[in-house]
Amino acid sequence: MNAEIKVMPDMRTEIDGVVTAAYDAATDEMMGRLASTAGGAIDLIDQVNRAGLNKAIPMLAKLVDSGDLQRLVNLARVVGAAEDAATDEMVGRLTDAIGGGLSLIDKVNRSGIEKALPTLARLVLDGDLERLAQLARVYGSAQDVLTDEMIGRFAETLGEGLSLMDRLHRGGGAVRIVEMLERLENTGALERIAVGLPILADRLDMIVNMFMCMEEAATKAALKPASGGLGGMWQMLTDARTQQTLKFLLEVGQKLQENCAKR
């Protein structure tokens, strides 16, 4: 205890010497800066105390230990560099993009489109969405190829078809056509018509030629009237062309008889 009492005056003397030397060396400017720094430090300590930042010191210590504080500093540097590099035009476009995105999200939320998300998910999984996209491409290509004239003809054809269907529906013709087709189907006539139409189409030229021959024969017979009498009849019968014609008519009559007899 006495040793400590003896040491204290010596330390006090040294401290007083240091203070005196510092006081002698300090200028008015240095004292002003020191007072300003001390006042700022005391003010900062007061603000920290009032704001309760002392509670954040353990969290800051954890950030320092884990290295997260350094990461936050690096992130702040990146943000600062981006802010320095961004121009007013870039900032304006970014603002417009963010505003458009928020507006789109608001419209989606208001329209209730989120209810369609399960359906869209099923379309994506089944591949139907891709088919719809391909169908839209086909429709777009057809729309690009179509001219005004083609569209006009198509619209006219569609209008006439709808008008015909309306007339058939109003007059009851559609019902009668269906009933007639049912009767033909029940009797087997529809199948015979289906089989006979190709044959008739192939023999159509022959039928046209037959009517033309009948017309020419009627014209010639009108221009050359028969002379009459047994002599004229005998002369006609002895003519080879007459005999050939009679033979042809007999063959035709025989074939007609055979076909009619089968029925």
Count of strand segments = 0
What percent of the residues sit in helical stretches (DSSP H or I)? over 70%
What gap, in angstroms, lies between the N and C termini? 154 Å
Number of domains: 3
Task: Report on this structure.
This protein is an all-alpha fold and 263 residues long. It folds into 3 domains: 2-87, no CATH class; 118-169; 172-224. It is 89% helix and 0% strand. The chain is built from 13 helices and no strands. It has helices at 2-25, 28-51, 57-66, 68-85, 88-111, 117-126, 128-145, 148-171, 173-187, 189-202, 204-223, 229-237, 240-262. The longest helix has 24 residues, at 2-25. It is rod-shaped, with a radius of gyration of 57 Å. The termini are far apart. The model is unreliable at 1-7 (pLDDT under 50).
Give descriptors for this structure.
disordered N terminus; 3 domains; about 90% helix; single chain; mainly alpha
Summarize the structure.
The chain has 263 residues and is mostly helical. It has helices at 2-25, 28-51, 57-66, 68-85, 88-111, 117-126, 128-145, 148-171, 173-187, 189-202, 204-223, 229-237, 240-262.
Note the topology.
Elements: H1 2-25, H2 28-51, H3 57-66, H4 68-85, H5 88-111, H6 117-126, H7 128-145, H8 148-171, H9 173-187, H10 189-202, H11 204-223, H12 229-237, H13 240-262
